[in-house]
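Key idea: predict the complex, not the pieces.
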Amino acid sequence: MEQRKSKIQIRGLSKKFGDLVVLDQLNFDIFDGEFLCVVGPTGCGKTTFCNVVTNLLPPTEGQVTVDNEPINYRKHNISFVFQAPSCLPWRTVWDNVKIGLEIRGIPEKELRERVADVLDITGLTPYKDFFPNQISAGMKQRVAIARGFVTEPDMLLMDEPFGQLDTSTRFHIENSLIKLWERKKQTIIFVTHNLEEAVYLSERVLVLTPKPARIKQEVSITHLPHPRNIADPEFVRLRRLITDLVRWW
Amino acid sequence: MNKSRQRITNFLYNMLSLGVVMFLWYLLSNWQNSPYFPRLSEIWNAFVTLAQYGDIEGIFLSEHIWASLIRIFAGFAVACAIGIPLGLAMGLWPKLYYRTRSVIEPIRFIPPLAWIPIAIVFMVGFNRYVFLIWLGAFFPIFITTLLSVTRVNPVHVNVAKVFGASRMYIIRKIVLPSVLPDIATGMRVGLGVAWMCILAAEMIGGEMIGVGRLILKYAELLRMSEILVGMVIIGVIGFIMNEIFIMVENYVFRWRSEVSID
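Result:
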């Protein structure tokens, strides 16, 4: 089997708030171009995990490195798709998507090409001049995803991005996400509490324990090709296996 | 109901409420039959006289309005020029506010009228008007700016931060656009207060011109019709300015689903 290159290294990562230990000694690697899902019971510290990994919250112990260098927003290309609605309401869809490229000082011509490309893949081109208040919640989340992908990040972290969407919209956007990832092959950490979503999307699932969160088990799903059939016996088996791992009652 | 139909309906209802008020005034003034409760026709005549022939000193109504407008704009402009940057600075660096609030907060509660003696002693001419109007308009603008900065959505800031944005970029491209609608609301409230201060300012201004001065002149003569003309002029100009402000807000901040209660 081909040896995959480690892109992101998480070593001894812990986060405490006073006496409350939320993350406890997390150690794992994420491979270059991998789609990794992190699942765990509600309240286990998934959002804290995202904030610590992206350095929005400083870790209490341990560190996150990208290509073996401590994470740095200026040096590394990081994108974060937040759980909460994050479209900037005063910017049109086009301007929202381009913000990461604008901050990184990408030349105008390249910027236009990249934004147009990602809007095309996510089906947002007809709405490029709309403001977020003129589009649906599902589209806003697609804008956030397009914004995350357009910078072609070293690490794209997604924190339950579809949590507030209905089933059919979620299914539609999940397929858009897979399409984007297959084309761009970015390294993705996708945090969710929806186990079916984890099996549907990822190459590997990392199951966390209840608080304090540790890694309970890793489940590889590389053998299931995309697009996945949720009625496939192997899909069902994996979903059951992960459900049993997450179950704490 | 679509937007334009809603607008027409609102307009018709507004005309109806205005008609009701005028009708009530008509009934009451006829019933009272007193020089202190002038009829609508008397108020209209006073308006025409003031516009065509001027007041007791021969100053035309348009000159009074123009003088007041200039004073309002000057005081309001100074209030914006100081209130917005100061509010932004104190919102971005809250230590500045917490370390000076013992000075700022008590001043906020002193009514502009209480400053009149100080304005008389230390200032002359145009500065007196500007100072008193500034006092009224400054705090609504300053306080809304200050509070709006502290309410900027942290997720929006984090979006830029994760992409590696500098602090200056975050201030320019995230904080400023976030707070502009609130600043506009503060400006609208400030403009209203500025109009409320015009009478106080023109009471001590020393010049015989201005809508506030017009009211005071006729108050001394107990001529209610002219006083009411002055009051209505202040109300109507304030209303028109407010409407213009709302139209600009609706266009500039069209990205907001609800801009303001208009």
